[in-house]
UniProtKB/TrEMBL annotation:
The modification 4-aspartylphosphate is found at D55. Keywords: DNA-binding, Phosphoprotein. Residues 138-203 form the HTH luxR-type domain. InterPro entries: CheY-like_superfamily (IPR011006), EvgA-like (IPR051015), NreC/VraR/RcsB-like_REC (IPR058245), Sig_transdc_resp-reg_C-effctor (IPR016032), Sig_transdc_resp-reg_receiver (IPR001789), Tscrpt_reg_LuxR_C (IPR000792), WH-like_DNA-bd_sf (IPR036388). Pfam families: GerE, Response_reg. PROSITE patterns: HTH_LUXR_2, RESPONSE_REGULATORY. CDD domains: LuxR_C_like (cd06170), REC_NarL-like (cd17535). Gene3D superfamilies: 3.40.50.2300, Winged helix-like DNA-binding domain superfamily/Winged helix DNA-binding domain. Residues 4-120 form the Response regulatory domain. This is Response regulator transcription factor. SMART domains: HTH_LUXR, REC.
């Protein structure tokens, strides 16, 4: 009997392309949903899937509650996350919350297939081990931003320039740059776009 996979992603092209590819390359039956509520409804109707793939930022999906709801509904089947954001911090916390794996959408097709086959075989990801207790504690929690850093981050997520953010906050542009540099280190963000993606995934704004 073929394994059953459920893909929940609000990006139709990504979802349908992935479903078609997995059905062919992994030889599985694939069901689809555009949001978390739809995925939970399918699980309730069809029973637990051998694997559920959840888009990290689709409608209804918040962390960790969305993941936990799906894990409870799909028990004992595993649930993995699909994401366009690559962040060791988010990945580590997702695994701690029970995700079977954290799968960036930028993975090469053969690498994605390999990791999905491993999950179906019962090989799930484990939290990274570290001897740095303080560092581990920091990884487990959401990065702490100051009020001003959050305001700058909100401006960045709104697509505003440093000058526009400075005008909104009535500060110098150099001050905005300084706050962005600091919040980027806290988020481990490579650039403005990456910072906005991480902020959305972590629900910091």
């Amino acid at each position: 009997m073929k394994s059953r996979i459920l893909i929940a992603d609000d990006h139709d092209l990504v979802r349908e392309t992935l479903a078609s590819y997995l059905a062919k390359e992994v030889d599985v039956d694939v069901s689809q949903s555009r949001d978390l509520d739809g995925a939970l409804a399918l699980i309730g109707t069809d029973g637990a899937f051998d694997l559920v793939l959840l888009d990290l930022t689709m409608p209804g999906m918040t962390m960790p509650s969305g993941l936990i709801r799906c894990l409870e509904a799909n028990r004992p089947g595993p649930v993995a996350l699909l994401t366009g954001t690559t962040s060791e911090d988010i990945e580590h916390r997702a695994i701690l919350d029970g995700a079977a794996d954290y799968l960036p959408k930028t993975l090469a097709p053969n690498a994605l297939v390999d990791r999905i086959k491993r999950i179906l075989a019962g090989d799930v990801a484990r939290p990274r081990e570290t001897g740095d207790t303080a560092g581990d504690a920091q990884t487990r929690g959401t990065p702490v931003l100051t009020r001003r850093e959050r305001e700058v981050l909100q401006g960045i997520c709104a697509g505003k320039s440093n000058r526009e953010i400075a005008q909104d906050l009535d500060v110098q542009e150099v001050t905005v740059k300084l706050h962005f540099r600091t919040l980027s280190r806290k988020l481990d963000a490579r650039n403005r776009t990456h910072a906005a993606l991480i902020a959305r995934d972590l629900h910091l704004i």
